[in-house]
Inverse folding.
């Protein structure tokens, strides 16, 4: 090694541009930290003709991945193309050529993480992916290094900026989901096809990654129970606010004894909880350790420079490892057996909103149905139903109850004539 | 190395007890992470007869430091005695014997950090001190690793739990400083001699450590401008609240171009800023990176188990480094030249509270004095002065102004007869 580290960059979109920009402006700091000069010596692009907001010599731009993978001088590949294929194939091939990998690809890591890490380990290569979760927050580092001596029991967070922006706007501006989504798309905070964000898939991928690291197990995307925010109404948000809650798309990974639950769903968070005040495109992850108690990490969840920063902090680690000759040895690997909770093992408080007949005895009947499932109530709010004076809105907040019992009671509610409709049901978090 | 790492523990107070407890209960997790069993094989105590809340074999307890320092089998020394001497001498001697050091000693690191790190590096030993700042928050790791590819421009935080507890109580319960301090002492949140916490020295030590790491310079305790909370009155807090501020003891380390300022002082934080909502004994550190923008780290600042966790996460790193054979190479060392700001380079908003004559023209005169120092006003609040109807309380909040100009204008205020008294002056943070 002659003091220069050559890097191949796969993907030249927003994050790729940020990487090139940062490598350039932080050359001196890199050198001070690693003793090496870093050079992006090859960039894989789809369209070499496209205008970029950052200047690079056209000689280094290519559409042929082999020019990176088989370049003997390239020691590290930074993959910021996104998507599963061809990224997965390129990375596997690059590892076989002894390249270290830094990736921001949450889709890939959530689904093929184990395979890729195993391969990297076999070839003595590093594979790091800090940028795949909560761009600007060094949350993977915090979980892997900072909590190395503790047992993490719960990870709870806002890990998708788009949905947090939408829910914040709905709440602050009393606007509907569709209105705010359109606005977010115009501002570039939401994609033209917003499904992955809005339906919770993006958050679920991140929670799969965080729970794998936090609990030392191999979690797959299918292990995460997912529900998006597209059906959240402004009315739900308002009733929640009356009761002291803020609506957030919350990812939860929880371990009780040996049993794990991981979910992403619209959740009412108590206003006194730090997560309730995380607004706009910001992300925040709350990590609960058996010894340390409650901690929270807050920062920008995405964006060109925050994500590029996370990529480059991994790159610094790779380069230090190259100097130390310890690549491929410091990656987190699962050593615990994965046991998932069943619905009867998952306990939470729930917010249930019903339209009921406004007659005497109805509340008593409903309470009886709930008692049959051993669900008790923490709060009840009854309000007139605007469009029909014979009906009423009834909001129930339960004490801790199993998800199975909640589902049972929701099914029972569908079958009684004094309940016109189950409007919504959300998990409640952030209190005792 | 036979798969067992023997550790010598210096100090067996609260944190030491926590370390013994954690080492015991996390044996299995340690093994899974490091491939080694960790054993506390020697404990240095002052009084071997003292009752402890955790059981250890009396054979391993000693009052002679040489039994740890010269024990060939001990590879790592954990120092949780606190204070400068004899901790400094013991650590230097232990390093000479090739021991790796993990310390929670902020006093020592703030004053002799450079000397100790240099010594450790010379002997190929690790020296880590995550537990010295904000116990349960892996903030040193976040700054060193997470921000390795960014340029930190500002670190701002609540790094002392005792004072945050006192200020929170004063504000929430409308109580005086003396009342709350007494209560905190009874609850064990404040020491019998509270000077180090209350006068900001503890926070200053932590800011010296964080700013050294964040800006890659050797900051000393004397470089930190310090002011405690003992003169903060309930009236100040209430007037601040009327203007939308919360009083916090804030540590600030800021770098503009190449110039650095580090201070600890009672500060009004805008209520919309995340730090305003950090209450009780919790700590929070907000780190601003040029690329990443704003991030915040929140958690318990002290306590037996949170601090012990930080000690043990450092121990995990040491043990991994032993396995990798890379000790003594991964510690942060200053590579930038330290240039401190003068008073005329330090810019902030300020809250100034005056008792003035309640006569026409007074505000105009005051504004004129301020204009002479090029200070302009963002907010003005005038309230009747309770005990004298001829006087008025006047609160001024300035736009950004240099500390020098603020000091000049405060001096000028002392010399005019229409101002009876300058009651207080605080820095204001958390807005643009």
């Amino acid at each position: 090694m002659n003091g220069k580290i050559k890097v191949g960059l796969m993907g030249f979109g927003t994050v790729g541009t940020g990487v090139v920009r940062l490598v350039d402006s932080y050359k001196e700091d890199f050198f001070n930290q690693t003793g090496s000069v870093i050079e992006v010596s090859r960039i894989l692009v789809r369209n070499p003709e496209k205008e970029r907001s950052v200047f690079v010599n056209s000689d280094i731009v290519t559409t042929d991945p082999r020019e990176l993978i088989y370049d003997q001088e390239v020691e590290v590949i930074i993959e910021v193309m996104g998507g599963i294929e061809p990224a997965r194939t390129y990375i596997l091939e690059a590892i076989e050529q002894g390249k270290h990998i830094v990736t921001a690809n949450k889709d890939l890591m959530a689904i093929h993480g184990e395979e890729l890490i195993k391969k990297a380990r076999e070839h003595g290569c590093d594979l790091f992916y800090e940028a795949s979760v909560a761009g600007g927050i060094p949350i993977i580092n915090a979980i892997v290094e900072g909590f190395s001596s503790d047992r993490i029991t719960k990870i709870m967070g806002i890990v998708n900026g788009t949905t947090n922006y939408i829910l914040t706007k709905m709440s602050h501006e009393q606007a509907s989901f569709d209105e705010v989504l359109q606005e977010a798309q115009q501002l570039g905070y939401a994609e033209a096809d917003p499904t992955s964000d809005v339906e919770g898939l993006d958050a679920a991928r991140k929670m799969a990654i965080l729970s794998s690291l936090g609990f030392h197990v191999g979690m797959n995307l299918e292990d995460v129970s997912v529900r998006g925010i597209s059906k959240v109404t402004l009315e739900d948000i308002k009733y929640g606010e009356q009761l002291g809650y803020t609506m957030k798309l919350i990812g939860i990974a929880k371990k009780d004894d040996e049993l794990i639950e991981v979910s992403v769903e619209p959740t009412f968070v108590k206003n006194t909880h730090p997560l309730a005040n995380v607004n706009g495109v910001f992300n925040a992850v709350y990590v609960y350790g058996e010894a340390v108690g409650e901690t929270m990490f807050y920062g920008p969840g995405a964006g060109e420079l925050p994500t590029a920063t996370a990529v480059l902090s991994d790159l610094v680690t790779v380069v230090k490892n190259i100097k130390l000759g310890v690549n491929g040895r410091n990656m987190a690997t699962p050593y615990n057996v994965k046991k998932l909770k069943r619905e009867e093992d998952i306990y939470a408080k729930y917010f249930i909103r019903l339209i009921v007949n406004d007659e005497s005895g109805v509340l008593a009947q409903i309470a009886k149905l709930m008692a049959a499932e051993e669900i008790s109530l923490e709060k009840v709010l009854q309000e007139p139903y605007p469009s029909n004076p014979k009906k009423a809105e009834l909001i129930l907040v339960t004490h801790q109850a199993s998800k199975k019992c909640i589902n049972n009671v929701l099914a029972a509610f569908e079958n009684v004539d004094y309940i016109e409709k189950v409007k919504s049901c959300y998990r409640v978090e952030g209190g005792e």
Observations:
- The longest strand of chain B covers residues 245-256.
